[in-house]
Amino acid sequence: MYRFLLFFAAAASFAKTDAVTLVVQDLAGLSPSEVDQAMAEAGRVLGQAGVTVAWIRCQPGTEDPACGLPAPTSLFVRIYGSDSVTGAWKADSGAFGFALTSPAPDFGRHAGVLYGRIRKCASDTGAHPGRLAGSVIAHEVGHLLLERSRHSETGLMKGHWGKGELDLAAHGLLNFSRAEASRLKDRIRLRAGLARQR
After folding, report:
1. Angle, helices 178-197/129-146, rounded to nearest 10 degrees
2. Distance separating alpha carbons of residues 183 and 191, to the nearest angstrom
3. How many other C-beta atoms lie within 10 A of the C-beta of residue 167?
4. Between the CA of residue 6 and those of 3, 14, 16, 55, what are the distances in Å?
5. Among 42, 81, 87, 167, which is least packed by CB within 10 angstroms?
6. pLDDT tens for residues 70-111?
7. Given CA atoms 81, 87, 90, 93 in this order, what sign does their dihedral have?
8. C-alpha to C-alpha distance for 88 and 85, rounded to whole angstroms
9. 49-77, pLDDT tens digit by residue?
10. HSE-CB of 141 using CA atoms within 13 angstroms
């Protein structure tokens, strides 16, 4: 009985927060610990902005219905092992990832992370690849939730990360601005509200 009440209280608490589900598909063949590190850092960055993340890990080619995108607050993140992707899933030269953004009511829900580029940058700079990948995931999820492809002048949503941003990311200090955090939560609420109306 006690365990049930704890679970129920935790579930009720989660439902009241600004929550998003991230469905992660590792196409790079990373070790579970590498994926865990990236997810932990992305969760920390989004949590710093007041966003709670529920994670679903999906294997490539899975038919598991949990790996679908049932709600507008569910976003799909693919981790690619190469440093480039073709077709609609394409990133700019030198970018660590990409997001297919779309305004309400359609909403962008797909993002990609180029782990080959992240691993090379981490090797060149001494950064931790899992932590850097988590920052990239948070950045791309930011594009999806903020519903814009443009970048900010500073911080996590800056378009090109130089030494300063990479150092901040390496120390877990590269975050959303207060204004971005507020807008993230507003947009999650909008997505959840439109889903209830459908």
Report:
1. 60
2. 12
3. 15
4. 5, 12, 16, 20
5. 87
6. 677 889 999 998 766 655 556 677 789 999 887 666 678 899
7. positive
8. 8
9. 999 999 999 887 777 777 776 677 889 99
10. 37
Structure-block tokens of residue 18: 């600004």
Q: Six-digit token pair at 94? A: 């030198």
The 3-class SS string of the chain reads CHHHHHHHHHHHHHHHCEEEEEEEEECCCCCHHHHHHHHHHHHHHHHHCCEEEEEEEECCCCCCHHHCCCCCCEEEEEEECCCCCCCCCCCCCCCCEEEECCCCCCCCCEEEEEHHHHHHHHHHHCCCHHHHHHHHHHHHHHHHHHCCCCCECCCCCECCCCHHHHHHHHCCCCCCCHHHHHHHHHHHHHHHHHHHHC
Phi and psi (nearest 5°) for 176? -70, 150
